[in-house]
Design brief:
The chain is an alpha+beta fold. The chain has helices spanning 6-15, 19-34, and strands at residues 47-51, 60-64. The protein is flat and about 40 Å long.
Length: 65
């Protein structure tokens, strides 16, 4: 089984009409995010966002800090 994102697992559960699986995927994803050592952000942290290229715009990167 591939390592899929919580959102992808929730969408798959939704297609199967598996409400418990959908909620579990979303809650589990939230828990995994909020238990990371870098969450929540603190003053001085920097955020790097990369927007992938599309047919209308090139790939771009923005840094916030």
């Amino acid at each position: 089984m591939k390592n899929r994102s919580p959102l992808a697992r929730a969408e798959e559960a939704k297609r199967r009409r598996d409400l418990v699986g959908e909620v579990d995927a979303l809650v589990g994803g939230h828990r995994a995010l909020t238990e990371t050592p870098w969450y929540p952000s603190r003053p001085g942290d920097q955020l790097l966002i990369t927007l992938e290229a599309s047919e209308h715009a090139p790939r771009s990167t923005e840094l916030y800090g």
